[in-house]
Write a structure and sequence with these properties.
With 82 residues, the chain is α+β, with helices and mostly antiparallel strands. The N and C termini lie far apart (43 Å).
């Protein structure tokens, strides 16, 4: 017997969601920790590549996995938060 279908979350209720298991569900993130992308300097090429790749993924087009690599303090986490 198949499990009952999941009720779709209200995607207008939040900007971000987190996946939980047992039971399977998406819960809204109440406060998203963001950084203004204009504050990030010297990472233009990486930023543009990541943003375009994410847009393609969101439109259902082919996209690549992303690995941000570098020393501490290079802006990897900040770029993801932006």
């Amino acid at each position: 017997m198949a499990p009952a279908p999941l009720e779709a979350p209200d995607f207008e209720a939040a900007d971000a969601f987190v996946w939980h298991v047992s039971p399977d569900r998406l819960d809204p993130v109440k406060r998203v920790n963001r950084i203004d992308i204009g504050l990030l300097v010297g990472i233009d090429r990486s930023r543009d590549t990541l943003v375009e790749n994410t847009r393609q993924f969101a439109r259902g087009l082919p996209a690549n996995n992303a690995l941000l690599w570098g020393a501490r303090g290079m802006g990897k986490s900040s770029l993801v938060k932006a």
